[in-house]
Amino acid sequence: MTYSDFQVWRDTKVTGKLDVSVVVPAYDESDRIVPTIGAISAHLCSSGLTWELIVSDDGSGDGTAELVRSLNLANVTVLEPGINRGKGAAVRDGVRAARGRYVLFSDADMSTPIEEFDRLLDAIRNGAGVAVASRAADGAEERGRGRRRSLISAALRGGVRKATGVRIKDTQCGFKLFTRESAEALFGSSRVDGFSFDLEILWLAQRWDIAVNEIPVHWIEAPGSKVSPGRESLRFLRDVAVLRYRALRGHYAAAMIATAAA
């Protein structure tokens, strides 16, 4: 990236349709949101793609939204409902606001480096509706995660596959790329507001025969994680049960019909 590339992106708002929308959910991320924006812009400004960044704040109390707005970046949008509803709700809001042909969801901690976007984009261009960054696929590299967290994650992955039939090995990695059509259908029908929204999205994609490619990535545990393994594991298991209940009641079938008719 040249500095002039960044200047153009910083100062001139791109109108109309874009190539890529990057959605970053944020909850009390004032310590790292600026470096995250810098990393994303450094990579995508050199890609030749037109793109926007959407920071979807989830009720931060540390001034995250105000900090991002103070940067005065022409192609950055801040969504701020003012309440904490959950990561899934924040990502859903961001997807609804996106204008790109491709929609990338990325965690604010950049545990999956933005450079991995290129590999996911190749999968989308080769026909996938969803490309999933994976810490569990063959060839993936995971660094910095403690043994306890790794064991809990591995156990949850195995349990989820048995309980839901979702074939993706790593449903929860916070880095996923969608075609616009897939994003609109999946997030338009999703119901989970919290941590387990990824599982619901991938379950729907498999149910509706949307092609999903799992891409091995290099992943580094970011310091200061806000995820409590024990608490989130319980919530995750609860959400699996709710997902199965909703499916049995036909909620998703009705939602799919409504989405297709919209």
What amount of the residues lies in strands? 15-25%
Q: What is the helical fraction, as a range of percent? A: 40-55%
The helix/strand class is alpha/beta
Molecular shape = globular
**Order of H and E elements:** HEHEHEHEHEEHEHHEEHH
By DSSP, the count of extended strands is 9
**Total helical elements:** 10
Q: Low-confidence parts, pLDDT < 50 over ≥5 residues?
A: none
Determine the N-to-C terminus distance.
Answer: 40 Å
Rg over alpha carbons: 18 Å
Q: Strand order, main sheet: write it out.
A: 3-2-1-4-7-5-8
Averaged pLDDT: 89
- For the report, how would you describe the main beta sheet? 7 strands, mixed
Describe this structure as you would to a colleague:
With 262 residues, the protein is an alpha/beta fold. The protein is built from ten helices and nine strands. Strands 3-2-1-4-7-5-8 form a seven-stranded mixed beta sheet, with helices on both faces. A two-stranded parallel ribbon has the order 6-9. The termini are far apart.
Question: What would the keywords be for this entry?
Answer:
18% strand; seven-stranded mixed sheet; 262 residues; single chain; globular; two-stranded parallel sheet
Give the helix/strand layout.
Elements (H helix, E strand, L loop, with lengths): L2 H9 L6 E9 L6 H12 L6 E7 L6 H7 L5 E4 L7 H11 L2 E7 L10 H9 L4 E5 L6 E3 L3 H18 L10 E5 H10 L7 H11 L4 E5 L1 E3 L8 H20 L2 H11 L1
Parallel strand pairs: 1-2, 1-4, 2-3, 5-8, 6-9
Antiparallel strand pairs: 4-7, 5-7
